[in-house]
Amino acid sequence: MKKILLCILLLAVSAGARTMWVRVYYDTEEARVQLLANDFDLLTGSAQNRYFEYFLDEKTAYDVQAQGYIVNILHPDITTFLNETYGNLRMNFGEYYTYDEMVQEIETISALYPALTHLTSIGQTWQGRDIWAVKVSDNAGMTEAEPRVLISGAHHAREPIGCSIAIDNMYWLLDNYGANDTATAIVNNSETWFVPVVNPDGYVFNETYDDPWGWRKNCRDNNNSGQMEPEFDGVDPNRNYGYMWGYNNVGSSPDPTHGAYRGPEAFSEPETQAMRELCDSAEFIYAVNYHAYGNILIVPWGYIDSWVPSPDSEEYYAMAESMTTYIGVPNNYVFGTGMGTLGYETNGTSDDWMYGEQVEKPKCFAFSPEVGSSFWQAATDTNIIVNQCNDARPMNIFLEYRAALLGIEETEAVSISNLSVWPNPVHDRAILRFDLDWHVRLAVHLYDITGRLIYARTAEYGPGIHELYLDTRRLSSGVYVLRISQGEQTILKEKVVIIRG
Ligand SMILES: [Zn+2]
């Protein structure tokens, strides 16, 4: 009750046509649906805590409150708030990459690591800008038969953190190549493709668009006026993909002036066409498409107006749990479907198409993290960008390393036989048993699920039966990967489950 009174008071004292940043709470399913029927541009939401966030003008905020909703004002005047917080830094991107800076950075990266990177334009926008992609792999100039992973940012123009995360991940792989086993395995045995800015026109428009919160869509000229007019133009690239496109008018909008306008038809936009072509040719097995905000990890389905998970939900949820909970320093993102996390459905999204479309390309497990707690949160503070990259990087590495493990060729050993690991699951110790008919130098490596090396031993063994004991008492429960290799050859690669307690 106190909270409601406070809100009413705040509403009463604020005068003039201000735009407020509000959080609107619903208490029933009916109230949720009714609130969505208002068709306001959504900023984010929380299914757990039952709210949506919007920018509403003062009168609309009153109206919503009069409908019986609890309206919590995060700030009574978003323009003042953002100007005070960022000054003009929002428009010059502060510590985020501008499009030009991004291009410079990936050119620098390719110059630093010419053998491990391949820079390519995957298409051009309405305004003629290149949509750049960087492939990171050994023999990057060649197309090898290796599993591929996609990392993308900035489908939505006002969400620049995805660009920072993509570049951070590139540097991590390349700087650590040859020095860190995980990075080396990823680069050698898989291809990681980065598209730091999927939507360059919208992204660049934010440099001159004098709106405190920035532009979201691309720059399609919806009304054919020959110029970019934010009140009329733009398509939401993340509502324009061709799987269940336009499924309903809640998960996307048929209205060109709406922030979630889905476009005149599926794949009508050069940005989604370029992504489609890339996905069709690269046949990614995993993808992470970065967004802001909410500290959430979203998995399909997005389009269904329920909490219906996908046919692969068990595997999806296990991966999402590992990505958010069990790797590196956990980021503890809430994970689930769009409905299960944000509380609203979305149709025509990248993830539903990348996962759901299985005719023109294989199934791809696609994820959409919503990073941070606002769009331009880090404009004045590099540390926030660093922290958010630290939150995101292990999720990428988890998938990249999974892909790399699939890419490691398993080869038959010539002089080793009867190789076994027992027991599995392991409690206190595992026994590794094998027979040799000659002297062999073997390396035993145990990795955790993030690819971090936990244990390594290289030794030479003579003819006969051998038993090695692997003490697991100091390891926590989870899935590990045991790899035994002879020189460059992997002889055994096996998942070992450790159960403690
Ligand atoms: Zn987004």
Keywords:
single chain; 501 residues; alpha+beta; Aminopeptidase; Immunoglobulin-like; 3 domains; eight-stranded mixed beta sheet; 13 helices; 25% strand; disordered N terminus; binds zinc ion
Question: How would you characterize this protein structure?
Answer:
It is built from 13 helices and 19 strands. It is α+β, with helices and mostly antiparallel strands. The chain has an eight-stranded mixed β-sheet with strand order 5-6-8-7-9-12-10-11, sandwiched between helices. The longest helix is centred in the last third of the chain and has 26 residues, at 382-407. The model is unreliable at 1-15 and 410-414 (pLDDT under 50). Bound molecules: zinc ion. Zinc ion (ZN) binds next to loops.
SSE blueprint:
Elements: H1 2-13, E1 19-25, H2 29-37, E2 44-46, E3 51-57, H3 58-66, E4 70-75, H4 78-86, H5 99-112, E5 117-124, E6 130-136, E7 148-152, H6 161-175, H7 181-189, E8 191-195, H8 200-205, H9 270-282, E9 286-289, E10 296-298, H10 313-326, E11 334-336, H11 338-341, H12 350-356, E12 365-370, H13 382-407, E13 416-422, E14 429-436, E15 440-448, E16 453-461, E17 464-471, E18 478-486, E19 489-498
Parallel strand pairs: 7-8, 7-9, 9-12, 10-11
Antiparallel strand pairs: 1-3, 1-4, 2-3, 5-6, 6-8, 10-12, 13-14, 14-17, 15-16, 15-18, 18-19
Bound molecules: zinc ion (ZN).
Zinc ion binds next to loops.
Bound ligands, named by name, code or SMILES: zinc ion
Query: Which descriptor suits the 3D outline?
Result: globular
Rounded to the nearest angstrom, the distance between the terminal CA atoms is: 45 Å
Beta-strand percentage range: 15-25%
Tell me the name of the CATH homologous superfamily of the largest domain: Zn peptidases
